[in-house]
Write a structure and sequence with these properties.
By secondary structure, the chain is α/β, with parallel strands linked by helices. The chain is 60% helix and 6% strand. It has 2 domains: 195 residues, no CATH class; 108 residues, no CATH class. The protein has 17 helices and 4 strands. The radius of gyration is 20 Å and the shape is globular.
């Protein structure tokens, strides 16, 4: 698997919306840029944006919006407003992917549509010109550095030893307002940030390419068992709301994927202190990850079983069912 690095104004603009919520979780990275643009925005667009976010009850914008947009044809070349306004095309495109859930579609599209007032207003205050002049050069410089570094790695064999993965190319969309996230998109692609260490891009790739790790319908009963585990329930309740895991099922999947990604990086000698990482990452909320990481180390997966079976056996041993 080779890496292809691209820039994306559309994705970076969506990522910038996170800090325009005024959330300190993002302002600690982008206060300077917030102070430049937020005062210039129209009061009406700010009010509509705030009400839309409050109505949908989400504090993090970029992961969901970029995921849905990435399903659409030529999303990196088209106008963002046009993409978001085209509900039928978005739905038709997104439903082809494993992430589509008919029960969630309308609520999620309402959330995406709520970003439009501020997206339109950012164009009025010349955000694109600012991005082209001040951010794109930084991204391009990092792109050059990463192009050389990523030639040293082929994650395909390690990833495919756990899940079905036949892609030859993984696309990295390098942004400048993505911190502190790495963001999975439709297909073998993800968003990283130019400010991250080059090793972090490998870590994000190893992590994001595992989403989703299992066929949920095949393992649902065992995910439900984990969802009743006191350790996991308590960690889910106490997680930072900005982490973006709104359901226990999503939280459990993230714990499993986190362990898989760290395992790959450990095998590549990129992650040298995995347990220290688990303790610190997302404020230590991924309490299942170190247990599954141990299982990966001590119970190498055979090629004769698929990942669903491997995961089920882990749940049985972890919970004693």
């Amino acid at each position: 698997m080779k890496f292809e690095i691209k820039t994306s104004y559309n994705f970076d603009k969506i990522c910038f919306l996170n800090c325009l919520t005024g959330n300190e979780y993002y302002l600690k990275y982008y206060k300077k840029e917030y102070d430049i643009f937020y005062p210039l925005l129209d009061k009406k667009s700010k009010t509509l944006f705030t009400k839309g976010m409050e109505m949908c009850g989400k504090t993090t914008i970029s992961p969901l919006v970029t995921l849905y947009i990435s399903s659409m044809k030529d999303f990196n070349k088209r106008d963002l407003e046009e993409l978001i306004n085209n509900e039928q095309e978005m739905k038709s495109s997104f439903r082809k992917h494993i992430y589509y859930d008919a029960n969630e579609w309308q609520d999620n599209y309402t959330f995406i549509k709520a970003t439009l007032p501020i997206i339109k207003d950012l164009e009025r205050v010349n955000f694109k010109e600012y991005w082209l002049t001040n951010r794109l050069p930084l991204i391009k410089a990092k792109k050059t550095e990463l192009n050389s570094y990523l030639l040293n790695f082929d994650l395909g064999e390690l990833i495919s030893s756990f899940v079905e993965f036949k892609e030859d190319i993984c696309t990295v969309y390098l942004c400048s307002f993505a911190r502190p996230h790495g963001i999975k998109l439709c297909g073998p692609s993800f968003i990283s940030d130019y400010s991250y260490k080059k090793e972090s891009t490998i870590s994000i790739a190893a992590h994001e390419m595992f989403h989703p790790p299992y066929n949920y319908e095949h393992v649902k009963d065992y995910v439900d068992i984990l969802a009743k585990n006191d350790l996991i329930v308590e960690a889910f309740k106490n997680q930072n709301p900005n982490s973006g895991y709104y359901t226990l099922d999503d939280f459990i999947e993230e714990n499993i994927v986190e362990a898989l990604g760290v395992y790959v990086c450990y095998m590549l000698n990129i992650e040298k202190e995995p347990y220290e990482y688990f303790e610190k990452h997302d404020e230590g909320s991924h309490v299942l990850s170190p247990h599954f990481f141990n299982y990966l180390l001590n119970n190498p997966k055979s090629n004769n079983i698929n990942f669903d079976e491997y995961f089920i056996e882990f749940v049985k041993r972890f919970t004693g069912v």
